[in-house]
Amino acid sequence: MRSIRNAIHNPYAASHSMGVRLLLYWFTMALLLVAAILSILMAMGVLSHPARQLASALDIQQRNTYAALDAQMDELTAHGVAMSEKLGRELDAFLAAKGIPFDALNDDPKTIAELEKRLYAPLSSTLSAASCSGIFFCLNVTANTALPNADALRAGLYLRYSGLQPTVASEQDVICFRGAAEAARGLQIQMHNRWNPELNTALIPGSNKVATSQVERLAEGSLWAKRTELLDTWEHVMLLCVPILDGSGTVRGFCGMEISDLYFSLSHDTVSSSYGNMLTLLAPIDGDKLNLSGTMLGATNGSRLTAEGTLHIKPGKYYTIYTDGKESYLGRHRLLDVVTSDGIPLAAVTLVTANTFRSYERGSQFAWFLGSVLFLLAMLVAATVLSRRFVKPINESLAAVRGDTTEVVTSGISEIDELLTMIRERPVGALPPDVEARLRGFTERANTLTGTERTILQYYMDGYTVKDIPELARISASTVKTHNRNLYRKLGVDSFDELKVYIELFASCGRSGELLNRS
Prior knowledge:
8-stranded mixed β-sheet; 4 domains; 15 strands; 15 helices; rod-shaped; alpha+beta
């Protein structure tokens, strides 16, 4: 490697063998081959594999999404159970203080309002502690049993945050969405612009099942109602319902918490990545379908995803594909330990838009391809420069030997420099000893030729052939053959071809005159 480095930095330096130079050339060619292969692989997307990279990023984000949603729903369930226990105790204490049975609350709006004020404290404290947008309880009583839909109307209190902002709960304004007017005024709570005195449980999916359940543990009777439209508003919500038990274990109603679309969106922002914004969904998964109308959507920045329609799920090699036929998304999902009121499990879903990822994929492949092409061009330039640097001193040294220049130039290759040095140092016209001896012997033998034989030799030296001699010497062909035999014998050659070799050798050395006895 040191020799190669020195050869690159100083191409005229001696002591670098041709083997080292060839090693450097082959190394450069190997780099060119590698660059060409990389270019092809980059163009085919074999090495620049955004799909595999996306899969890794989705796996990480999916674990985070699942952990966050699972913790949030477990936390809300725990808060709901604790609140139900407090409400049950307060209910028993209130009825005992009044000395009335539970059913006596029917058709008694004044006592209902008084009870709602008493039950406000556990409701308010839970709202400030839980990750939700609203909180409520309703009891299996109504202020007016004579109303046509009295079976669905339930007395209770429903508190919500007004004008949700991405901030802490203590800074949010709380309003009364459902509850007795007297209770709201007594508690100094502002009324919702769509306020009603009681809850219509018919509009809460699965609420009847919770209100009539017979359970020993509150967590077992808890139920997440599927995403539904909140009556008298433009919002959609998902509600947690937990039964309220009195001291005897009888279900007297239910309580729970609300997660609105807006709250969920503010709570689960998009996560920026090189592949596009990653979206968070809490979605019902039914076989190979994801029902968007029942889905809670996190922030959807950078996408056109809405809570409408159905996404068909298609497993892929690196990620799952979700498509509605027009728009496609890539992602992962994992089922939570939660089943909605209609029996469909909920899943934590992480998505990126397919178009955004495809754009990144094309850009990534182009960047890899461009980089490999630039690398290939750099190697070509390097090979060209190195070749010129190495060939130039060789050509210059050869030119010096030819006499084109008087300057002594080394080639930088030890074998060539040694040969050229030997050529330069040899006397002009000098021949190896054995060759010189042969030429002297041939000259001596040529002196024994007769005048006619010497004339024929002259013709041969001038480039004529055996067929030309009869006409030139004005003798017959048979006489030419006789002279040739004598000529070959005296000069010590076996054929005309061997004679020509000697003639050419004398000519190349500038000594042709010796054969004709001329100095």
